[in-house]
Predict the structure.
Amino acid sequence: RPVLQVEGVNKIYANGTVALKGADLTIRQGEFVSLLGPSGCGKSTLLRIMAGLGDVTTGTVKFWEQGYDVVGDKGRKLAFVFQNATLMPWARVRKNVRLPLDLEHQSGAETERKIDDALEMVGLKGFDNAFPRELSGGMQMRASIARAMVTEPNLLLMDEPFGALDEMTRNKLNDDVLKLWQKNGWTIVFVTHSVYEAVYLSSRVVVMAARPGRIVDDISIDQPFPRN
Ligand code: ADP
Ligand code: ADP
């Protein structure tokens, strides 16, 4: 069933750049969708619009779980992971992961259990009291994934999430995200300019082209590699 629906979205920035032209895209429950295309084709613009972080010029974005338009709405259940971990440097790992629950004024034993689960899921059990600067770049990204998933969002949006990491760390994190998706049935939209990453990771590849940014292909991938 659909989670999010982008219909006829055009985006023209204030300086006149046409970043998206006629984008139509429906994300369904349980899909791992890669947005693939060269730099400047509008991938980030589309992802940010899905997240409600940017306005459309024309068109609509609907968040189907609640059955209403996501643009400008604060009640949507989605999470965003950026290229940098964007952790609060003055706060310990546990406090960083707790942030979205604090914002929802959640507390108590159930909340602590959710934080424990999120930390364990990403392999950061026992790092509660570390400060971000004491962690490697990969571990910082793990903390940002834990923070994203601690509220159990319906949709995880990732904008070239591991692009700032060295190749080996990136591959390990990609593999772990793939396993978490397979295990937990997350719905993911993942921006990349790597054909390899798109094909290796996702169940569906949406290909974009630049000038003006538009969707030119939409390919389903059925278990391309043996997965363990
Ligand atoms: P991608 O993520 O595929 O690299 P972007 O969505 O970042 O592409 O950008 C699409 C186009 O919109 C590019 O031409 C980019 O330069 C332009 N663009 C992005 N953000 C802005 C902005 N805030 N103002 C003006 N132009 C922008
Ligand atoms: P080889 O078999 O030659 O060691 P692979 O087929 O494993 O190479 O990988 C081919 C390319 O894809 C390499 O650039 C490699 O770093 C990259 N790659 C491998 N595994 C992953 C992964 N899990 N996520 C993203 N890229 C990967």
Summary: DSSP finds six helices and ten strands in the chain. The beta strands are 2-12, 18-28, 32-36, 58-63, 68-69, 78-81, 155-159, 188-192, 204-209, 214-220. Residues 137 and 165 are 7 Å apart (CA to CA).
